[in-house]
Amino acid sequence: MTLLVFDCDGVLVDSEPIANEILARTLTxxxxxxxxxxxxxxxxxxxxxxxxxxxxEITGRHIPDDVGAAMNRELFARLRTDLRAMxxxxxxxxxxxxxxxxxxxxxPERIALALETTGLAPFFERCFSAVEVRHGKPAPxxxxxxxxxxxxxxxxxxxxxxxxxxARAAAAAGMRCIGFTGGGHANDALAARLTDAGxxxxxxHMRDLPDAVARLC
Length: 217
Hints:
alpha/beta
C-alpha cells in the first residue's frame, strides 16, 4: 500500500511565518542580514543545523553553541500560543485510508509540540526528524530513512511538501511528490518552484489532498 510521508511545518501546521521571523532576526544578528520574507523563500525546508553551518561558512564567524537552543526556546513559546493547524487538514487526514508518517527537518521536540498543540498527533503512528540522518533536505536521506523504517519501497511513497528543498529530496529519493502552497509563507511563485523541483501535483488547500493522492496511487 502507498505510504504518505508528510512534512510538518508549512504542510500540517502553519508555523513557517512564526519560525522564519525568529530565524531571520537570529541570522541577521549573526552577520547574515536577512528579512523574514527572504528567509521563507530560501531557508524553508532546511534543518537548523544545516542553516547555521551554512551561515558560519558565509560569514566566517563562530556561531555560539547556544544559538539553536535560544531560538528553540523562543519558537516553542510562540508555537504554544500562536500555532494553528492548516485549514482543512484534519478532514483531509480523516479521509485518507493510506498509512502515513511525518518526516520533518525540525527537531523531534518541535514536531511533537506542533502535533500535540494542534491535535494532529493521533493521525500519525511515526514521526521522523532530520536529526536521525546525516544529511537533511534536499538530500533524500530523511525520506529514505522513513521508508525503510516503515518497510515501504521509495516508489510506493508519496511525499507532501511545501518547500523546494523537500520536493527535491523527494525526487532524489525516487518518491512522488505533492506540492502544497496553502501556508502563510507561500507566495505566487511557489507553485512553479515546487513543480520545477519535482512535484507532480501542486495543491493550494488541504481539501484537494485526497483527490491528489488518488490521482498518484
